[in-house]
Amino acid sequence: MNYVMSDIHGMYDKYMKMLELIGFSDDDDLFVIGDVVDRGEHPAEILLDMMRRPNVFPIIGNHELMALSVLDVMFSGEKGEASVPVEAMLGDWLMNGGAFTLESIARLSEAQRLDVIDYLSEFVNYETLDIGEKSFILVHSGFEHFRPDRSLSDYRVEELVWYRTNPAVRYFEDENIFVVSGHTPTLTMSGKTEIIHGNGNILIDCGACFPEGRLACLCLDTMEEFYV
Ligand SMILES: [Mn+2]
User: Fold this and answer.
1) How far, in Å, is the centroid of ligand 1 from the Cα of 100?
2) Residue span of the structural domain in which 136 resides
3) 181 CA to middle of ligand 1, Å?
């Protein structure tokens, strides 16, 4: 089976409980569509678990993008091509819940820390998956500056991690194409911590890191929904 989760945000216990609930095995694949880090206390532990599973496929979120911009400079000694000074990026990141990620990564051994930073830098921008008649596009937030004729590989990472998908809008004409995204807690749209389906959009961020929120997981083969 193919499963998708998003916005785990450092909630290691919910992540582990979810793997147990879905009975995740070596025969399954799990796609994690961004925002593993920040806000919750144990992001490094989640990353270490994901890293050692060959059947977990990570897709980048805005929080990984922010974290990498700082971690690369702090721990890898890389200058990067950033035009913004690291102090400014650090401030933005800490205001967005980065302190827990920084603390969690600082607790690791140096070798583990570099492995985790390497792993974060390998997160892809999006994934596509065909199951039966359906085609799924897995992306953290959706498509900013969307045009139906624009190829997916043409979008810059910043256009894929900050946008807010509107479930009232059909982005792709083909009714067999489904965009699965996170980033915007469904509670803020529907008032419920439930996955939202609309016009080919599937929004799965049910706010795992918030007291009233839940971690959601969707099975793409059966469309069964799981909550922790
Ligand atoms: Mn996000």
Assistant:
1) 16
2) 2-227
3) 10
